[in-house]
Write a structure and sequence with these properties.
The protein is an alpha+beta fold. The chain contains 20 helices and 12 strands. The chain folds into 4 domains: 132 residues, no CATH class; 121 residues, no CATH class; 100 residues, Phosphorylase Kinase, domain 1 (2-Layer Sandwich); 186 residues, Orthogonal Bundle (Transferase(Phosphotransferase), domain 1), CATH 1.10.510.10. Helices cover 49% and strands 10% of the residues.
Length: 569
């Protein structure tokens, strides 16, 4: 099997599926198809809901990529089309694997750039994981990469300098973690030993050398950060790393640096919203049919009942959030605040954030308040549970993860700059559709700047549901029986969102890891994530000390543009 077999399927079955669809993109693809160049095909951005179009263009990219290989590093991310095609057409798995393996072998046989070679190996590893298939190109990559690393090791043993050492450690770590090369223990012990000797000699950690040496403890911390991330069974080596770290801390604690800001989606500044000046948008009571049969969910606050119902509004499926048995003015004020938050966020919604569409509110004669908003049928909590039970997590691509992370964090950054703090971030408070578009819900305990707090907050939110996802400064205060504590509301939300993202990545329970004394366990779990930038991001979002934790806007700097190719930045 080869690209010619895939080309035959492309020109028959996949072509037939798109040729009669009234879509300008599909019409162009159907008209020119295989005659297009790879660069022309790359210009297309297909709607995520158009599965037939996605299958056609994914197959087309693979056919052209094999035809034009080797093409170099500019087309490395196109391997994702193979993963996508397998997801959409599982029966093509063997054929797509043959084509992708052929591409990988061609690229690795021709490249002389070590960074480019490693990038192709990483893409091969992602494809192997998604498909569960063997790739001979991945084995070829292992041979090439280990030869490069032994050459680097020999050079460092003769003349070790920090710049070359850090570059080599980064390369070696990426080979083990990102390219999924397992048989690297001898290389890790060799290069790791050189690194530890370098740290101890340069900084005189044993006190046996020259006290006047030019120490650089922060550089030593950076080197140890790499060493601690390697998966290795050698207990003596791990003990050496721990002892070196302790010696460095005694001289100078590590300083956490935030990356230089990148150019991201514009997030307006200083837009603190004044809810008192916002008039609630009311709509006529169209006699929506709200019955026990169409109820989605219900719960009770101390003085009123809340229920969510599925209904139809202007030919759209919507959710109606019904507040009933509302007895006093303070409860009405709380409800109105939540409605106004939904309304403000709806006015700011676009493709780059996760805000629900709000249609309006209507009142009933029995005193109930009914908010009409966009409908999504599934919570992220349920989605994660289903994925974990079915072992469906392996097919998630880096671009999918990057897009979800970027839109979520961008949303909370925008909320913060509007002066809105969610206060109850957990998987249950996100809705998700079949294409993994997420929406933020449930603002009933949210805080608004200059109304509920100024720059910090004292009152601990009384959110029972947030147990397991609240920040350590709140968790510790709860455990100590405190009713008030000084917190930075944004930094607390950053931690909660970081824990949700970790839950989504690992599909494993994270409840119980949100206290200060469990933070080392949390950091170890993060260090095992397969995508490097997600490690860097979550290590900064999930710092136990809120002073060391990034803000939402700072967190965006860890998501590389290559992980979100469909979002302009």
């Amino acid at each position: 099997m080869s690209s010619s077999d895939l080309e035959e399927i492309l020109n028959t079955r996949l072509f037939d599926a798109i040729k009669n669809k009234p879509n300008a993109v599909n019409s162009e693809l159907a008209l020119r198809g295989i005659q297009m160049t790879l660069n022309e095909i790359k210009q297309y951005n297909l709607n995520s809901a158009d599965h037939d179009g996605k299958k056609f263009i994914s197959a087309l990219v693979l056919v052209k990529l094999e035809e034009e290989a080797p093409t170099g590093s500019s087309n490395i991310n196109l391997f994702n089309y193979g993963i996508e095609l397998i997801r959409l057409e599982p029966e093509l798995k063997d054929l797509v694997t043959e084509v992708c393996d052929s591409i990988l072998v061609s690229e690795l046989s021709e490249t002389i750039n070590e960074v480019e070679a490693l990038k192709w190996c990483i893409e091969g590893a992602k494809f192997k994981k998604a498909s569960g298939k063997y790739l001979s190109g991945h084995d070829l990559g292992f041979v090439n990469i280990t030869e490069i690393l032994w050459t680097k090791s020999e050079s460092l043993s003769i003349n070790c300098n920090a710049s070359e050492l850090l570059t080599t450690l980064d390369f070696l770590l990426s080979a083990q973690r990102d390219a999924n090369f397992d048989d690297l223990e001898t290389l890790i012990l060799t290069i790791g030993g050189i690194a530890i000797n370098y740290i101890e000699d340069k900084n005189n950690l044993d006190g046996l050398g020259n006290e006047n040496t030019q120490k650089d403890i922060q550089e030593a911390h950076r080197i140890l950060d790499y060493l601690q991330q390697f998966k290795i069974d050698d207990a003596d080596f791990r003990q050496e790393i721990a002892e070196s770290r302790q010696k460095c801390i005694q001289i100078e604690p590590q300083i956490i640096n935030i990356p230089n800001p990148m150019q991201f989606i514009d997030i307006p500044r200083d837009m603190n919203v004044d809810l008192s000046n916002i008039a609630i948008k009311y709509i006529p009571n169209l006699r929506f049919e709200i019955t026990d049969q169409n109820i989605i969910y219900a719960y009770r606050w101390p003085n009123f009942q809340v229920s969510l119902h599925k209904a139809i509004y202007k030919n759209k499926v919507v959710t109606i959030k019904k507040y009933s048995e509302v007895a006093n003015d303070s409860d009405i004020e709380r409800i109105n605040k939540e409605i106004k938050i939904y309304q403000v966020l709806s006015e700011n919604r676009n493709f780059s954030n996760c805000f629900l569409e709000y249609f309006g509110t209507y009142l009933e004669q029995n005193g109930s308040i009914n908010m009409v908003m966009e409908y999504q049928k599934e919570t992220l909590a349920l989605k994660i549970n289903n994925m974990a039970a079915a072992q469906e997590g392996i097919a998630r691509s880096e671009t999918m993860i990057g897009t979800i992370f970027l839109t979520l964090i961008t949303s909370f950054a925008l909320m913060k700059n509007l002066g809105i703090i969610h206060g109850d971030i957990k998987p249950e408070n996100f809705l998700v559709d079949e294409n993994f578009n997420l929406k933020i819900i449930d603002f009933n305990i949210s805080m608004v700047k200059n109304t509920d707090f100024i720059n910090s907050a004292q009152q601990i939110p009384k959110s029972v549901g947030n147990v397991g996802f609240r920040a350590p400064e709140l968790e510790d205060a709860f455990n100590e029986g405190l009713k008030q504590t000084n917190v930075n509301p944004e930094k607390s939300d950053v931690f909660s969102l970081g824990l949700v993202l970790l839950n989504f990545l690992t599909l494993e329970a994270v409840i119980g890891l949100n206290s200060t004394n469990k933070n080392p366990i949390l950091m170890k779990k993060i260090s095992e994530l397969p995508i490097r930038w997600t490690q860097d991001l979550l290590k900064n979002m999930l710092q136990a000390n809120p002073n060391n934790r990034t803000t939402f806007t700072q967190s965006l700097n860890f998501i590389p543009p290559s992980a979100t190719p469909s979002i302009p930045r």
